[in-house]
Amino acid sequence: MHHDDSGMSEHGDMFWNRRKGNILLGMMARILFKFGKKERFKPDLYIDEGYDLSEYGLNAKFLHIPGHSKGSIGILTADGDLFLRRSARKQKQTSSQFYYGRLIGS
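Structure (tokenized):
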């Protein structure tokens, strides 16, 4: 997990470290999307820009791509394939969507 998103899992607050918007909507969202204490965790591994995945058998590295959150990341392979992940928490289940694309010129 990128350090900029670690507070989400450690504090149980999906809006930790995000831009402040409408105060009322923010309060409602924190109530609706807050992790319970048993779902909170401290990441075993923090990753940064360029973190090499070769020790895990992948010829790829992490890219820091702030956007959806300050700690959003992608995986760039040596062949130029880019994988992005977006997840949403719904009723104690996590569903993930993976986006895949090839960088232009590779």
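The beta strands are 60-64, 73-77, 81-90, 93-102. Residues 87-96 have pLDDT under 50 and may be disordered.
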